[in-house]
Structure formats: C-alpha cells, structure tokens
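#struct-pred
JK: can someone run the complex with fe (ii) ion? inputs below
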Amino acid sequence: MKADIHSHILCGIDDGARNLEETAAILRFLHQSGVTHLAFTPHYYPSQQPLARFLEKRQAAFEQVLTLPEAKHFAFSLGAEVYFTPALMNQEDLSDLCYSGTNLMLTELETKDRFSSAMKSRLTQLLDLYGIRPVLAHIDRYDFLKKDVRLLSELQDMGCLFQVNLSAFSSFFSSMKMISLAKKGFLDFLGEDLHRVPRSPAGREAMLERLEKKSRDMVRQADREALNRIFR
Ligand SMILES: [Fe+2]
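RT: done, structure tokens with the ligand placed:
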C-alpha cells in the first residue's frame, strides 16, 4: 500500500501521536513499509471545539511535522476525520475539513448500530448544500453497512465514497467479506487509521504481504484512487 488516507499522526491534537518523537517514529515506520502518500486526518468533534480553533491547532501540528527529516519521504494531504453529528451542520463553510484541494471529507458516522433517515438527510445536505462528498470512514466497523449491499449501493449512488481500514484484513472472515465488497465496487480507499507505531510490525507486514498476494489489484486500485482523487 502506497497511499494511506486515514491517520492520527499529527501530535497534540487528538488521541493519536503524543509528541513529535512519536510522530517521527510512525513516519519512519510508514516509510519503511513503502507508504509514499499520507493524509493527516485528526479527529474533529463539532460539538466539542470551534472549527477555527481546530484548524489553527491542525496547522500548527502540521508545520511541526514539516520540520522533521522524515517528512521529506512523503507527499502529504491535510484533512480531518469529522464526526458526523447534527452540530457539524451549524457551520457555514466546511471546505477546510476536506482533504487539501478537494471536496472529499473523511466522515465518521456517529453510531455503530444502525443507519437512520436523519443520517441520510444529513449526508444529502452535505452533498447538495455544501458540495462535499463524504468518504465514509472505516466502513468495516459498521455491521449495518457491510451487511447491507443495498444500503451501500444507495449511498454510492448518492455520491458517498468508502474507506476501509487495513485491520479489516487481519482476520480471515472479515478479510473475505471486505474483499468481496471490494469486488462489488464498495472499496474506494484504504487507510491504516494509525495512532501509534503498530504493536506487532511483523504481524502487520505478514498481513500486508498476504493481502498483496491475494488481492493485489484491490490494493493497486485503492492506491490509484487515492493518488487521483486526494493527492492530486
Ligand atoms: Fe480514525
């Protein structure tokens, strides 16, 4: 995997990297594993923090990263993992939460239980009023999504895109499920959602190797999508 569109590597802004040393360690790790394009997507919780304050903190954290020698190995994109609550819609302009220079926003659904009509109308609002396309974060975590191809199809027709976490491929059954959804066209992007250097780099490496072997096209396709749509 060359492009990772979901990470918590900026330090001091969310529950990700705790200091700049940790940020540097994660960047070294990703560089060694072959990642060349990396998006920073710190959590943004609309009801907890004014948007302007979040953007200031994100910019300061990003500028710190750029001082690191490890930064030269990557092309970066700056985004956010936006918690998709009604409070978000109180903002007039959400474009700064999209991946740099795009109208794509990594969107974290606020429930794990079910998809509600309120959520659907908010997604429609995001698309129609704000002109923003939601990239639904880690769809592998939501049973109500991954078990419902009709719903995925409906969301796709509306304009939603889908991101899957690498961890979804670490167990056999989950992996089979996600590969099958990818074959049906419901996987646009991959991300690792890293908060720390992985506890077992060797295990992760083995999992990635298996994935590349089994579904090389899927990984290549996700890389291509990321390069074309996010790291333009
Ligand atoms: Fe995340």
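RT: quick notes.
The first strand starts at residue 3 and ends at 4.
The beta strands are 3-4, 37-40, 43-44, 75-78, 81-84, 104-109, 133-136, 161-165, 189-191.
JK: thanks, will look after standup
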